[in-house]
Amino acid sequence: MILRIDRLGVELPPPSTPDPAGAAAVQELMGGKFGEMSTLMNYTFQSFNFRYRQGARPFYDLIANIAAEEYGHIELVAATINTMLTGVKIDDAKDEPYKQHFLFGGKGALPADSHGKPWTGDYVHSSGDLVEDLTHNYFLETGARSGKLRVYEMCDHPAARALTGYLLVRGGVHQVAYARALELITGSDITKAFPAPRIPTDKIPECRPHLEAGLHRTLYRFTLEDYEQAKAVFKGPHPETGEELAVVDEYPEGFPWPEAPPEPDVFAPDYAPDEIAEIAARLAKEAGF
Amino acid sequence: MILRIDRLGVELPPPSTPDPAGAAAVQELMGGKFGEMSTLMNYTFQSFNFRYRQGARPFYDLIANIAAEEYGHIELVAATINTMLTGVKIDDAKDEPYKQHFLFGGKGALPADSHGKPWTGDYVHSSGDLVEDLTHNYFLETGARSGKLRVYEMCDHPAARALTGYLLVRGGVHQVAYARALELITGSDITKAFPAPRIPTDKIPECRPHLEAGLHRTLYRFTLEDYEQAKAVFKGPHPETGEELAVVDEYPEGFPWPEAPPEPDVFAPDYAPDEIAEIAARLAKEAGF
Amino acid sequence: MILRIDRLGVELPPPSTPDPAGAAAVQELMGGKFGEMSTLMNYTFQSFNFRYRQGARPFYDLIANIAAEEYGHIELVAATINTMLTGVKIDDAKDEPYKQHFLFGGKGALPADSHGKPWTGDYVHSSGDLVEDLTHNYFLETGARSGKLRVYEMCDHPAARALTGYLLVRGGVHQVAYARALELITGSDITKAFPAPRIPTDKIPECRPHLEAGLHRTLYRFTLEDYEQAKAVFKGPHPETGEELAVVDEYPEGFPWPEAPPEPDVFAPDYAPDEIAEIAARLAKEAGF
Amino acid sequence: MILRIDRLGVELPPPSTPDPAGAAAVQELMGGKFGEMSTLMNYTFQSFNFRYRQGARPFYDLIANIAAEEYGHIELVAATINTMLTGVKIDDAKDEPYKQHFLFGGKGALPADSHGKPWTGDYVHSSGDLVEDLTHNYFLETGARSGKLRVYEMCDHPAARALTGYLLVRGGVHQVAYARALELITGSDITKAFPAPRIPTDKIPECRPHLEAGLHRTLYRFTLEDYEQAKAVFKGPHPETGEELAVVDEYPEGFPWPEAPPEPDVFAPDYAPDEIAEIAARLAKEAGF
Amino acid sequence: MILRIDRLGVELPPPSTPDPAGAAAVQELMGGKFGEMSTLMNYTFQSFNFRYRQGARPFYDLIANIAAEEYGHIELVAATINTMLTGVKIDDAKDEPYKQHFLFGGKGALPADSHGKPWTGDYVHSSGDLVEDLTHNYFLETGARSGKLRVYEMCDHPAARALTGYLLVRGGVHQVAYARALELITGSDITKAFPAPRIPTDKIPECRPHLEAGLHRTLYRFTLEDYEQAKAVFKGPHPETGEELAVVDEYPEGFPWPEAPPEPDVFAPDYAPDEIAEIAARLAKEAGF
Amino acid sequence: MILRIDRLGVELPPPSTPDPAGAAAVQELMGGKFGEMSTLMNYTFQSFNFRYRQGARPFYDLIANIAAEEYGHIELVAATINTMLTGVKIDDAKDEPYKQHFLFGGKGALPADSHGKPWTGDYVHSSGDLVEDLTHNYFLETGARSGKLRVYEMCDHPAARALTGYLLVRGGVHQVAYARALELITGSDITKAFPAPRIPTDKIPECRPHLEAGLHRTLYRFTLEDYEQAKAVFKGPHPETGEELAVVDEYPEGFPWPEAPPEPDVFAPDYAPDEIAEIAARLAKEAGF
Prior knowledge:
Structural class of chain A: mainly alpha
Number of helices of chain A: 8
Distance between the termini of chain A: 28 Å
Oligomer: homohexamer
Strand order of the largest sheet of chain A: 2-3
Largest sheet of chain A: 2 strands, parallel
Number of strands of chain A: 3
């Protein structure tokens, strides 16, 4: 079971200049093979299917807990796409290749990649073999880092930059976590490959505040009281900086979602939003809010 | 963001007689068009993409909160499939049509349907139009109820029955919730169609304990402090029983996961599980557990 | 079995300024999840699979007869796309995202959506449960209306406007029909949700002539002598106008297809169309035409 | 536009011994790459997209008219599958690989192949080039004949045999038609390859009555008054028998659909079919039937 | 088994003006239904699955040998795409519809079509029936010729022109080969349909040097000592020119690959290519190169 | 370009007891995500797209050369499937879930997985980043080893055992090769994870003869004169045995394909194979064979 918190893991800027082409690129981070739906669903299924938890608790806790954080990442990607699409007029969008943002969605995120191809369960690897799954996860985070770096370069919209700056740092934490887990089981020191791709995170301005806050070496516990044994794995020196890795017994306080104003030309949430708002206000009042 | 709780919403029986053909059927409730991945991802994307939240808060809160519960449902389906596959020997499984449980997964759940077709983002409808999305959701829950009833009939394995008994009751709550939301906005009384499909839930023995506990008229808040305005929508009489609907300010205490013992013939979590266990024990000890 | 009539349900303008980007948008109405292939194939399969026809004749007749009309709708969408692509030069089309109109098709319609993703049988829902299928159909028509409205807004090409103006009115008839059928079986008054999406059809200039001709409250019988009991369902007041609904014992006289001149740069129907024409003329003459 | 006739092109036997494995095989003739949905949609799209009709009328008429007959073929395949599934109990079906007949459909046909893979628009070839499309169609009918022969061999259920006996003869007519069209345009005599696959149709007992009735050399006009110039192409000797080919100005009288009784365990058309029947009877009476 | 030769079948020009839109079009020749992956994999699987080789050797040898040539064709298409993408800056590519060249690939070819839809095994036809497979292959080459002609017209980049000029000639050889094989088995003279589509190859300037070199009537043996009996089939007059067809006991000498310089903005082969080069140089030196 | 050799890399037994269920399992090694089509196409595309070859030759040579070997592996899988399907009667195959072996293929291999889902270009990873691609390849070989081990366990047919025994050894070589390449670039010692999955290859009887022949530490050069610098990478001690790795300047002599007799009930190569054989014999004779 989960508890949802109606806040975002990082602060995103409010809507500014619309950027439909950029929003299409950011979709790769949502529903691409290496997008956040993939990281979320891979770790989620691996945690569901984890056999012999009682015997391998620290590894179960690590994977299950990272899965929890990934939920917050699909949320961030969606918020970014909504922000970038806010204000695009449907009658100006005929030349956009990503027409389904307007014809099928309501200027919102779709579970699809940058070409509109839907995310598929085919992208999930849950073999049951712990070493194999950890190897996969390390590779997946590597591919995901690559995708984030490329979206960063392609898009200079402030929301896309805020998103990728944060995801690069947090994805790096997961990459380290899986590498360390592999090392502890097999003795392989894959962390010597860091960073992969080989762009130091601190070269990216939007990453720096998060590095300064230590987010690159911190694993939050996205839970009230579980997954504590992740601490038995996520420890030791960070492969790039040498700082000590740490699991902290808390989760980010978070930030409010950026505003997503109505877009009546796609009927979101209605052709006449005020009518919905009036009904909502009456219902809220009746219920004592 | 979410917080994960390492417990299940309902008690599932421990592994007993393996039932690979039944596990294949239960996959329809995971990755089929009307499976729990679909309910989870539909409501999740609708909540991410909800425009004008400030003006339509009660409806946002309702959808976002139901989305949170659905995460617990994919968890339950996965646990059931793992339970039903526990103990199947891979050298006895050659005649099973669902070979990927053994060849590709580790006797665990896959994000796919009863034929092995992967779940796809194509199953998500997030149009931005609130009335349209609610209409969709009502229909989706109707199709999902149909699927659960049919899996119930096809499978008499105790885990499948415990699962479907619970999901039928909880799915019914969501069906009522969306119908009520539609009614409050448009005045349409779709609740007269209940139950749909037209099998009274109380005819199903595995549903009865949950009905007696009132679970059919209760919406949990799967959150610490958000989504409270769902109360402005989920109220009034239950369409079948006339009892008052209620949003409660808590979530289920939950039950431990059923045991999922190692299955060395698919290397889950390893060909020699004890070696993993030994490493894990040492790490846990080093970390003070 | 069917009999084809070589005419279209509504008059479409002849080719004018080519509009390849608009044609790509119109593809959403062909092969998108809510396109006309979906409405056609859903009702067609439901009619094929309808069990207990002798006991539920009026509902069978309704669905089977609407299925017949939908065939005419995929025809109209195809004619529109052909019209909008007429005159695009392949050497000017390199920058079009929808390259397959030129590389794979012959400047004609493809059974695919606005991104080129092929229509799939996954979009068909034929559960066997009459109430469930009617609920689905009502939802499908709602989503289809949404798509038509959005294509209307995105495209100002006269063919796209003539198409969507007509489809919005006819789709509305089907939406009413399924809502009424649901009401007659279950007592639910979903028609209070009309119009959905909430844009009155008469606000759309291209709809008005059809409204004035009463097409919004008329169900044609697309048959010589069958499906008459649809009259037992499609009756009563139109939910928006209060006018009486009526099944008429005829079908539209129709209009000729707009001209589709040869496009030799994609070899349609040939690199040297006149050679084909010469052969055809000779054969026709030999056969006495 | 089309007019539907509520009769089938050939007489099918009533339900007898259920045959779910056979019904799964027959699905290949529905939604497989060479199934009837493919023949229907290929010729339908080619007719929609046919450029320069005025110059190439006999070929347009031929393709458009054959497309019309194919609609009747998907109808027949669906009726066969329904017949073969009638009487299968859902609680006996757990071991069937084709579980979606029970879990997702209502013991009816799905737009999918023998493995449950949905039919896709990818199977449609409509290049605009007449010679290319005719070449395709000839190949498609060849592959389709192959599929029918193999289903014939795999399934001895009387409905499957009645279906394939008829389709083999009618498919053969279409194969001849496209070969002749190619010959008339290019001079190529592909008809020397007949029959392909090389099993003489008259070796198949279920084909013989249709051969004796001359159905192998007759092209019906599935229309009231169009497509007459098909006569300019479909003529000359039948490549196997030497008999004269003929387009006839009529369509088959047809046969009633086999009975498809309710199947309450999949709620088709309802869990309690009599309640639906009662409502239907009342509505029919009110409407004067 | 195969032996690879690190050279290309035709000379391609070096990178010049980048042409990302053209590269997207060329993808249709890679992963489209009629692309080179389709010709490669169709003939490859047919050769693997060829039954009764001892009895039908000349046909086996023909198909197996053509399959070998097709490998060289996917190679050429890939080299062309790489060439056309060389020099595109990722920060200029946001408006390109084919974003995955930059976000997912490293400015290289993807096994996908011009819309980014992945190539699929669905495109392979290997029925086991020799006549049916040859008919398919003839059709496939016809569709492939059509695609090449259209890409030729859409793209004037010198690499695209060099590619299509060569592929049109070589594809024509395969088209003739399958037609001749069909003729020898069945007596059907499909070669009268040549050229299909009906554009004489010698009208295309980029084809002419290859025609002058006789490449349109020559089948290479892509093998050291096998497949010789292809000579028993590929013989007789070329259907267009009347020249004698010939199987030659050699394969092309080939040309070096065009240069593919590093593209650091997509980390290909690295963010800092020189570091890789340094390592490589050291390793090569250590190994005595 | 490639040269094909009409021999197999390992000796396969002739057809014996047919095993259609086993053949379906072996399909996972053909068209599954970790099947041989995936290894073939991943390395092939990476070699095509390799940028800065002149600077990173040893790595290019390694990948390109391994790609060449993989072609021989899809060949072996196909031969095995054909062998296992030889002798299955189509009229006995109705209960097989993998019906397309009979209805669509000619008792031969399909480019699809164990459920019949087609292989897709989605399975190819060619990022351009050398370290990322090597990481992927190491993971891919790990997943592939896992699949082979599981097929080995599920199938005791002698052809399946001969296949998997060989592929496990050869796949292990590739796993080592990519790990060593990663090590040489980054310093990461992933080889400590060997074997992964953790089943020593020498515990498998069918592997032992190949181990004794040293095949586990030998990289063949599948080329006449290229790819020699692979020697600069594939060297050093084998991670499990400590023996020296070696690139040899030759390729296997190979073995003849097992017999694949005609299967007339699926028309492979014909309904009357002798007629084809007669034609073939005549043609061969005419051509001087």
